[in-house]
């Protein structure tokens, strides 16, 4: 009986470690999303800072594709950030379930 309880606690600890590893992966995806989101903002700031050196009408054939690429990067960055937030909430729910089911290790998990 004692060995079975110890095995259940060890299994629960391993489950929590696996979920925390998945949560770290979600945090890395969020960090990537933030970096992707920052790239269009920096490109636009350079364009605005140098706008006195060119006429927008004359370089419109460059600005339109660049704007479309920036829009795509913004959408991708937002998607990665939102997806990682949703997944982290799911991981928190799974950890909470394990905490409720295994009261012995529940006191060690916040």
SSE series? HHH
Largest sheet: none
Low-confidence residue ranges: none
Give the helix/strand class: mainly alpha
Instruction: Report helical residue fraction.
Output: over 70%
- How would the global form be characterised? rod-shaped
Radius of gyration: 23 Å
Tally of DSSP helical segments: 3
How many independent structural domains?
A: 1
- The beta-strand count equals 0
Mean pLDDT: 90
Beta-strand fraction estimate: under 5%
Kindly, what is the distance between the CA atoms of the first and last residues, rounded to a whole number of angstroms?
28 Å
Indicate the topology.
Elements: H1 2-49, H2 60-101, H3 103-106
Helix pairs in contact: 1-2
Short description, anyone?
The protein is mostly helical. It has helices at residues 2-49, 60-101, 103-106.
How does this model look, in words?
With 110 residues, the protein is mainly α. It has one domain (2-106). The chain has three helices and no strands. Helix 1 (2-49) packs antiparallel against helix 2. It is rod-shaped, with a radius of gyration of 23 Å. The two termini are 28 Å apart.
Keywords:
110 residues; mainly alpha; 85% helix; 0% strand
């Amino acid at each position: 009986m004692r060995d079975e309880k110890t095995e259940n606690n060890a299994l629960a600890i391993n489950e929590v470690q696996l979920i925390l590893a998945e949560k770290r992966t979600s945090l890395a995806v969020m960090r990537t999303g933030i970096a992707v989101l920052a790239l269009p903002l920096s490109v636009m700031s350079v364009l605005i800072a140098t706008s006195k050196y060119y006429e927008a009408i004359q370089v419109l054939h460059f600005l339109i594709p660049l704007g479309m690429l920036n829009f795509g990067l913004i959408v991708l960055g937002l998607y990665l950030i939102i997806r990682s937030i949703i997944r982290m909430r799911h991981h928190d729910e799974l950890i909470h379930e394990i905490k409720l089911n295994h009261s012995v290790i529940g006191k060690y998990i916040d």
